[in-house]
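Q&A log
Question type: sequence-to-structure
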Amino acid sequence: MEERRYTFPKAEKVRKKAEIDRIFRQGKRISYRGMDIRVVKNDLPVTRVVFVTVRSFRGAVERNTAKRRAREAWRLNKHRVVPGYDVALVLYPEHTSFDELTSSLLFLLDKAGILQ
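Response status: OK
Response body:
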């Protein structure tokens, strides 16, 4: 039985502005409960992700908390995602709990067709 690794290395993050712009320009967009997801195919053996927040959060603390929760939800569920995609998660201030955010994330990944 294969042991799951719940790490989140740099290779699984979209970091360059040109790559982020490509996701937003070419990616398929799906929205659900305070979260948008953009998905585009890449030529890599891993699925990479970037987390984006909108400016309508009350402040930096709330915005950064939302990003931290989204990263944690992704980290715990990334083993269920099909490799070979770039994903952008756009967060809005509607989510209050980690469980709510996780269920929305899984719903969007399933709707995008990249959940195993």
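Response note: The mean pLDDT is 93.
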